[in-house]
Amino acid sequence: MAANIIRRVVFNLLTVITALILTGCWTPPNANVQPKGEPRLIQSGVPVESVQEQATVQAVDASLRIIRLKLSNGSLITCKVSQRVANFDQIQSGDMVKVTLTEELAIYVLKDGRLPVTGGTDEAVNFNAKVQLVDPSYRLLTLQYSNGQTEVLKTDLNAKLLEMQAGDAVVLQTAEAMAIRIQKQSVMAHETIPN
Amino acid sequence: MTTKGSLCLSSISLRTGIVVGVGTSLLMAAPASAALTPAEINDFRNTVGNRVEAATILGGDYGIGGGSYFSSGGNSKADINVSKFGGSGDVGDPQSLGNLGIGWQPSLQGSMGYLTAKNNFQSGLLDGDTSEYKTFAIQFGGGARFWFDDHFSISPTVMGMYGHTENTYTARSAFALANLPEAKQLGLIDWNVDTWTIRPSLNLQYEYTWHRTIFTLSSEPTYFYTESFRSSSPNLNVNGDSEAWVNKIDVDVPLGVELFGHELRTGGYFSRTDLFGDLQNGLNTSSVYEAHGRLVLDFLGELWKVKWIGLGGSYLWGDNIHGWSIGADVAFRF
User: Fold this and answer.
1) Residues B267-311: pLDDT tens digits?
2) pLDDT (tens digit per residue) in A18-74
3) Chain B residue whose CA is closest to A7
4) Which residue is closest to B280 within chain A, CA to CA?
5) Burial label, A7 (beta-carbon count in 10 A; 0-12, 13-18, 19+)
6) What Rg do the C-alpha atoms of chain A give, in angstroms?
7) Are B222 and B245 in contact (CB under 8 A)?
8) Which residues of A touch B298 (CB under 8 A)?
9) Better-predicted residue by pLDDT, A105 or B304
10) Residue B259, SS3?
11) Do B301 and A152 touch (CB under 8 A)?
């Protein structure tokens, strides 16, 4: 009796699975798509929790506690250095560092990289990455940078993730270095950030 | 599509019970007659074999929850405690399978558990005696999960399991004390047996996110084939088939409030497990329902590979069995 039931179930399952294989419509996550809806700013000042990045120090402004970093994904950022970073005076241009950043993002729907502005014109938005995947339940945003590298960020509770989708443009608005660990000290001279 | 898969360390637990009154009726009959009849030996093999098979699956299989059970049947009642550590997970993000429109990712499963079952005789010739079973089981295996769209996936897997079960009989009754040497010689008590189990299964899953709440419906028919490869008793060997079919609905709800810097999540699942073959006979029930609740903190993306950490608890019930578990609820995402 039980064996018959199982045999019937297995047969039905195999039929369903065969049908599914023939009609498979899974597609891998893709950031290079045009998001739905009119071009607009979805949200700015979206805080993301601390992320660790490998970076090379490009320049240091000791008086303003600002450094310019080239991240491993290829993007250049200028960020403040928190007072919590005790080894700031040891950091110099050319150092390879592991930095913990807190960032704020702005998320846009763009059309051909442009956003309409008042007066009927539009302007180009210089974005850093595109959204590849949104997990609103766990507040995860997977970004894809121009070099193809991806990064998963945990956003804050107020992020409007339900409005975000693959293909949205992401602009890094601000970043603050909360911790910096020097991995390889440079022998280059100290360089300052030009104003 | 979100990365799927989690490894749960479910139910570090205290629970009670299943039927363990095995072969003890033979203890009463056999020494008097000096030798077991073929029918009695067959009965002993079937009954104890089923129980060993059921204890090994209950003690070691990741799909069946750990905890404390109480079981009743026949003239005996028993308490069972199962401590278990294990789960399943899909590794990495799905990759395209050629141009079929199907995504796939490797899937791993593993579990280890320890089961103790104690039968206290409180009447008749064996009044005051206890018969105790201990089972250690460990299983590991894997397969792949195939995605047909962003919601529906199937995962065929195969696992292997090793189990060791031993019986210890403590005689206090005058009858048992008088017949203990003969009972031991016949292998009715104080035996131990090693088993292996092969476990193919097919998990079908549909996952849907509504706002921020994740609903997961799953169905998993599983087949177990168990065989003993070493036994201390000439009258005991295990060789049997079992099937289990788990149907489950899981809800995972983010609460939108933070505790210790992490978002609180709640949820749980309700499942029905239909049992067939020796597992049904060994546990003396045809189906088991489980209601599980949890309250956890979200660590995904914040602590390496950890999805959540919190507390969980279950209540299980069936025809002749009920039990509960409470313990740490930890899930990983790989």
Assistant:
1) 999 999 999 988 888 888 899 999 999 999 999 888 777 888 899
2) 777 667 788 888 898 899 988 899 998 898 877 778 899 999 998 899 999 998 878
3) B221
4) A2
5) exposed
6) 23
7) yes
8) 138-139
9) A105
10) strand
11) yes
Angstrom distance (rounded) from CA B83 to CA B88: 17
Name the residue of chain A whose CA is nearest to B203's CA: A13
For residues A127 and A130, give the distance between their C-alpha atoms in angstroms, rounded to a whole number.
8
How far does B34 lie from chain A, in Å, by closest CA? 39
Alpha carbons A78 and A81: distance in angstroms, whole number: 10
Ordered DSSP codes for A71-115? ETTS-EEEEEE-TT-TTGGG--TT-EEEEEEEEEEEEEE-BTTEE
* Contact state of B252 with A137 under an 8 Å Cβ cutoff: yes
Strand partners, B95: B104
**At CA B279, angle to CA B273 and CA B283, rounded to 5?**
85
Which residues are bridge partners to A46 per DSSP? A105
Q: Flag whether residue A139 sits within 8 Å of chain B, measured between CB atoms.
A: yes
Place of tokens 């601390």: A50
Residue type, B186: L
Of A146, A140, A130, nearest in space to A35 by CA: A130
Complex ipTM: 0.77
CA B289 to CA B273: how far, in whole Å?
6
Residues written for chain A:
195
Residue holding tokens 């409470």? B326
C-alpha count within 13 angstroms, C-beta hemisphere, residue B171 = 17
Instruction: Report the SS3 class of residue A83.
Output: coil
Are A170 and A128 spatial neighbours (Cβ–Cβ below 8 Å)? yes
Q: What is residue B59's three-state secondary structure? A: helix
